Structure formats: C-alpha cells, structure tokens
Amino acid sequence: MHGEVIRTERLSRSLIRVVLGGAGLASFAGSAFTDAYVNCLFLPDGSPLDVPWDEETARATAAEHRPRPRRLSVRRWDASSGELTLDIVSHGDVGHCGRWAGRARSGDLLQLRGPAGGYVPHPDADEYLFVGDESALPAIAASAEAVAAGKRVRIVALVDAPGDEIAVQSPGELEVVWIHRSVDSAVTALADAVAASGPPSGSLSAFVHGEAEESSAVVRVLARGGWGDPEMLSSSPYWRRGMGDEAWRGVKGDWVRAMRDETQALFAASR
Ligand SMILES: Cc1cc2nc3c(=O)[nH]c(=O)nc-3n(C[C@H](O)[C@H](O)[C@H](O)COP(=O)(O)OP(=O)(O)OC[C@H]3O[C@@H](n4cnc5c(N)ncnc54)[C@H](O)[C@@H]3O)c2cc1C
Asked: What is the model's pTM?
C-alpha cells in the first residue's frame, strides 16, 4: 500500500502535517483505536528503490539502501475522501522519517503497512489523562476528540518551547498543561507536572506515550500514587533519546517488560 502526498502543513515549529491520498490507499481500512498507527517505510538517500516496490526486490537491495520502517500515528483517516493524515515530528537534520517530513512535497509517495493500534478512551471512565511529547500529540489529539461530552480530560504535554504547542479540541471538559524543555530540561519534567496536577477524583483512563525515560517517569508517578486501574493505563515508549529507531527496537522489548513488572509492583504496593 502507498499514499501520495496531497498537501503538507506546518502545525508548529516541530510538527509537520502530511496528508496522503490517491489510489494506492484504496485498500486502507480505518481503525477504531485512537492510537492507531501505520508502519511507514522510508527510503535512505540514494536508494535505487521506487515506490511501490515489492518485498522481494527490497530484500535483494543492498542493506544500506533498504527501506527503514517507522511507526506513525493515524491522526485522521477520512474514508470518504480517502485521505490519511499523519503529524510528524521534524527533529533536526537526523532520522529518515523526520527528514522526509521536512522535505515532503505534493506528489511524493510513501509506502506503508497497517493500521494497528490498542487504545481507545474507556467509555466508562470518570476522567481521562493523556500525557506525552510531540510524537504522542497526534494520538493524544485523536483520543481527546473521542471522549464523551462533559467528562474531564487532562492533557499534560512536553514540547521544546511555546512555538511547539498545537491546538487540541475535545467534547470533554478539557484542561491542557504545556511543559517546555527550554524551561525545565529534567527527564522528570513531564512526570513532575503530572504529579502537580493532582490525582484523579474517580476512575481514570490514562494514555502515556513518548520518549522512553520521560514517559516511564510519568508511569511511576501514576503507579506509586495508585492513580486509576493498571488495566486502564496505556503506556509504551515511542522512541528513545540518543538512539535511532533500529537500535531502539533492538532493546525495546526488554525495556517494556521491565517497565511492566515495575509498574505492576508499584501499583500493588500503593493499595
Ligand atoms: C506506535 C507509535 C506511534 C508513533 N507515532 C508518531 C507520530 O504520530 N508522529 C511522530 O513524529 N512520531 C511518532 N512515533 C515516534 C517515531 O516512530 C520515532 O520518533 C522515530 O524514531 C522517528 O524516526 P526518525 O527516522 O525521524 O529518527 P531515528 O532515525 O529513529 O532517530 C534519529 C535520532 O533522532 C532522535 N529522535 C527520534 N524521534 C525523535 C523525536 N520525536 N524528537 C526528538 N528526537 C527524536 C533519536 O533518538 C535519534 O537520536 C511513534 C512511535 C510509535 C512506536
């Protein structure tokens, strides 16, 4: 499957919206998950492959020219227009995905697989807490839009500076707290802000994603405080500072398992 860039838009200093469409997305199926993601395949500079390529041709290509998979959240899928919206962090002149987004122009093609996903705001929860950085904002924004009217929705988001903030909407009673690395560069800045926002007053559906160290610190705050039910907590580290995605995927499984065990123990101790 592949999409053709229909238009791009700069949402903030660091977030670039890329809208894909075209006949190559004809078989794309929507997802009920608000954290649905696609696995996009970026070609390194100089790769002889052209979109769309087949798996066999890609496997036969020299390793340095093979496509690099990167997961990106489905910000929106419009089945009627066949348009798929991705919001991508442009984080300097590094990374196949971030650089592609910075250079994307109408007519560019992007091969992808999916979608998959796992979270939808629990309809029975009394309130919602969505926490993350720039990379998690697309899923957070989609989740905030999907809650029932009148429910409390708290977003605590970490970005580099005020120019990285985006507009977020919700039918719920929305409170948004922005934290800036330019003011507080500690790895616990996001976790400290979540702790300061106070525990929930009822059952909580929580979504915590983003950089590995930063989001793990947030999960520890929730688990130590016994905030909500671990079954209603969605958390996974989307990326790791100082590691490219290939290196991160090599160690991510162990990280996730260790974090899950620690989280369960902390929740149990808080009871
Ligand atoms: C399920 C899921 C959904 C995701 N959804 C989105 C999304 O909607 N939008 C999005 O932009 N990202 C999203 N991500 C994160 C994205 O896949 C990673 O950030 C990925 O590493 C970016 O690839 P890259 O080629 O740009 O950089 P890489 O080649 O992976 O890394 C190059 C360097 O950049 C650093 N880096 C990577 N990501 C960031 C970042 N966000 N900010 C600062 N430095 C970074 C790395 O630590 C490394 O040092 C998602 C990840 C997952 C697992």
From this structure: 0.97
